[in-house]
Structure formats: C-alpha cells, structure tokens
C-alpha cells in the first residue's frame, strides 16, 4: 500500500470515530483543518489528507493542489463517483421523484430506502427529503441538474429519521439556506444524530456517512404550519397533522398542482413499518386530517413507494392500520393478551415487500396501542 492510500485510510478512520463517538479532539490530532472547518463546510477526507500532507511536507505544489481541491469541494459539496441510485421519474410536469428501495437501508441501496422528490418552480427547485447521506444527496442533485438549470433553494425534511436528514449538510454546502423541518422532528433527529451516523457507517460505507454533519441548528423549524413562496404565484404548504409513524412529520402540499408529499404518514406498495416509537393510534387521526386537507383527487407521493393516489395510499396505510386495530380489539374483548397479536390473519398482505420483517412487530405494537386507547365501553377491562 502506497503512502497516499494509507494516509487516506487513516484519515477515514479518524472521521469514522468522530461520527461514532464525538471523540474528535482526541483523534483528529494533527488534523486541525478538519476541526476548524467543521462549522462552515464539508471536510472531505481526501482534502483533509492532502492539506495534512502539504503541511507536513512543506511542499508548495502540494499546498496549491490541496487548495484547488478544497475550493472545488466547497462549491460542489462532494467530489467522488456518482452513485447508481435509481433514475428519477417525471411524475407530472416539473415534478420528479427518485423511488428508493422498498426494503430497509443496506450497503447495496446506499441507505436510500425512501424517496427523494423535487418540484421545479419559477424561482428555483424544492427538494423533499435531504437524502440518507451526503453522497446520495450529491447523486440526486446530479440527476436534478440534468433536467433543470434552476438552483435548489428549498429542502423539506419529512421527519426525524436518518434517511430524511443525514444528507442535509450536502445541501447546505452547495448553498441551500432554507431547510425546513417540523419542531419535534428537528429535536428528535438532533438527539439521535451520532447514532444515525454510526448506524450508517456500520451498515454501509464509511465514505457515505462519515461526511454527514448535524445541521439542525440551521434548520427552519415550524410547529404546525409554514408557507414557502416559491415564485410564480405558487406556494408550498407545510403541515403538521400530529404524531404518526414518528413524533414529528412534515406533510408538504402544493395547492396549485394538487400535489401531496405525505412523508411517512403514507406508504404505498409495501408494508408499513411500525417501530416502538410509532404512535399507531394518533396516526389514524393524522391521516384523516391529511386526507381531508388535500382531498381525494390529490396526486400523492408517499414516504415509501412510488407515485400514487390518495385511495391507494389510504388502502396500503390507513386501511391496514384499521384492519389491525379492529382485529386487536376483538382479541382484547376475548380476554387475550399481546402474545395473541401475531395470530391476527395478515395473509392478505403477504405479497407486500418487507412483510416478513414487519408483520409480527406491527401486530404487537398496534395491539398495545389499542390497549392504551381503549374505547370507553372497554375501559373497565384495562
Ligand atoms: Zn421512512
């Protein structure tokens, strides 16, 4: 192994540890530029390595090269190969989506298991979801640039999950200053940032996740609603409809185009994933409010799955929850406990991707949520 590559590996290792444990001061000794630039720009490991080499060697030619690469990276946000993520599809005039893998995040799908979508407006481009890491964000941006030369001006983040947030530093680095997120989502992601990077690094590729920085201090955070003026007489309406798949979730709606981004309030074409923090009780009301707000004829881009209709997303999300809740209530009324939840017949959903990985956990959590919010008549059994 040559000098340059072993140096690069060492640098990557340091960045990896920084992401994992926040032990930056200790492990980045001799890498002062990385620390100094943390606040204002992306420190590519390659650039850090070159700067370090320039300093150690005192060679002017190396310093010049390092400066050039640094400037390029500052402007581009990331320099490296474009990832072969799925190609974007045009949903309707000026509306595009990249549909992520209908499964969990893996090394093979680069962590892209939700959707990155965008709309070209008069004054610029609005991107819905920052992407699971800066490299996927960069690769999505490359695709955006192939269909429009308008700048990305707004990024809207669907919730607190890593796959919605960890690409945010890329957008910041290429000049996006309006990154919107709901208050609870911002709080929850802020707390889980280190763990999110760690998980990404362990499962995927250190080069994808290590560059991610926590940008929550720069987010434009809202509680219930916000309006983005995107020019040409159009707006993007951001709404919070309550707890659901996560505590904080941002729904985006473009009234002039009857276009709805549900975030994880809505899934299509795959099983929903219910996590310990998911509130399947409030999800029902949040979905109903979203549905009433956007209407039956909205064009829907769900959190997971391809472009869809309100009826289809309701069928794959709301109707599934309703069925599971009704079945849970029957079991509760028959005096059965949570261990019986897995007996609920879910065979009609077995065709849905990630069925095997989710259906039993979903059943248990939904059962417990029903138990927690029993209808008045059943309250006595609690
Ligand atoms: Zn999600």
Account of the protein in words:
With 382 residues, the protein is α/β, with parallel strands linked by helices. The protein has three domains: 3-76, no CATH class; 89-309, Metallo-beta-lactamase, Chain A (4-Layer Sandwich); 322-381, no CATH class. It is 43% helix and 17% strand. It contains 13 helices and 13 strands. Strands 1-2-3-4-5-6-7 form a seven-stranded mixed sheet. A hairpin with a 2-residue loop joins β8 (225-231) and β9. α1 (3-21) runs antiparallel to α9 and α11 (280-294) runs antiparallel to α12 (310-333). The longest helix is centred in the C-terminal third of the chain and has 24 residues, at 310-333. Zinc ion (ZN) binds at residues 114, 161, 163, 264, 303-304.
Supply the helix-strand structural class: alpha/beta
Name of the CATH first level of the largest domain: Alpha Beta
Beta percentage is: 15-25%
Largest sheet: 7 strands, mixed
Fraction of residues in helices?
40-55%
CATH superfamily of the largest domain: Ribonuclease Z/Hydroxyacylglutathione hydrolase-like
CATH topology of the largest domain: Metallo-beta-lactamase, Chain A
Which ligands occur here? zinc ion
The rounded distance between the terminal residues' Cα atoms is 66 Å
Q: Work out the count of structural domains.
A: 3
- Count of alpha/pi helices: 13
Summarize the structure.
With 382 residues, the chain is α/β, with parallel strands linked by helices.
Helices and strands, with pairings:
Elements: H1 3-21, H2 24-27, H3 32-37, H4 45-57, H5 60-76, E1 89-92, E2 95-98, E3 116-120, E4 125-128, H6 134-147, E5 152-156, H7 162-165, H8 168-173, E6 178-182, H9 183-203, H10 206-209, E7 220-222, E8 225-231, E9 234-239, E10 251-254, E11 259-267, H11 280-294, E12 299-304, E13 308-309, H12 310-333, H13 355-372
Parallel strand pairs: 4-5, 5-6, 6-7, 11-12
Antiparallel strand pairs: 1-2, 2-3, 3-4, 8-9, 9-10, 10-11, 12-13
Bound molecules: zinc ion.
């Amino acid at each position: 192994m040559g000098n340059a590559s072993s140096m690069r590996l060492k640098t990557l290792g340091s960045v990896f540890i920084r992401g994992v444990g926040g032990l930056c001061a200790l492990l980045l000794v001799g890498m002062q530029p990385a620390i100094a630039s943390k606040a204002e720009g992306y420190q590519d490991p390659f650039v850090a390595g070159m700067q370090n080499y320039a300093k150690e060697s005192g060679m002017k030619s190396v310093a010049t090269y390092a400066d050039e690469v640094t400037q390029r990276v500052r402007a581009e946000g990331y320099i490296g190969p474009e990832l072969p993520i799925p190609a974007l599809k045009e949903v309707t005039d000026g509306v595009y989506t990249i549909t992520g893998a209908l499964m969990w995040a893996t090394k093979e799908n680069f962590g892209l298991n939700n959707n990155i979508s965008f709309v070209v407006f008069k004054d610029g481009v609005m991107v819905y979801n920052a992407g699971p890491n800066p490299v996927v964000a960069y690769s999505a941006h490359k695709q955006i640039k192939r269909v429009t030369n308008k700048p990305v001006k707004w990024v809207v983040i669907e919730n607190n999950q890593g796959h919605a947030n960890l690409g945010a530093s890329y957008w910041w680095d290429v000049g996006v200053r309006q990154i919107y997120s709901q208050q609870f989502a911002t709080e929850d992601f802020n707390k889980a940032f280190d763990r999110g990077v760690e998980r990404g690094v362990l499962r995927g590729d250190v080069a994808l996740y290590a560059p991610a920085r926590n940008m929550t201090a720069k987010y434009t955070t809202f509680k219930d609603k916000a309006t983005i003026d995107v020019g040409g007489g159009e707006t993007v309406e951001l709404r919070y409809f309550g707890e659901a798949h996560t505590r904080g979730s941002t729904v985006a709606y473009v009234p002039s185009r009857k276009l709805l981004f549900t975030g994880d309030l809505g899934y299509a074409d795959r099983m929903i994933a219910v996590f310990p923090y998911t509130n399947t009780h409030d999800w029902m009301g949040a979905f109903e409010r979203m549905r009433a707000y956007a209407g039956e004829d909205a064009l829907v881009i769900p959190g997971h799955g391809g472009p869809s209709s309100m009826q289809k997303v309701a069928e794959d999300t709301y109707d599934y929850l309703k069925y599971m809740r009704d079945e849970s209530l029957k079991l509760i009324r028959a005096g059965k406990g949570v261990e019986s939840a897995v007996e609920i017949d879910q065979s009609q959903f077995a065709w849905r991707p990630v069925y095997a990985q989710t259906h039993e956990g979903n059943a248990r959590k939904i059962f417990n949520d029903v138990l927690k919010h029993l209808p008045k008549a059943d309250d006595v059994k609690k």
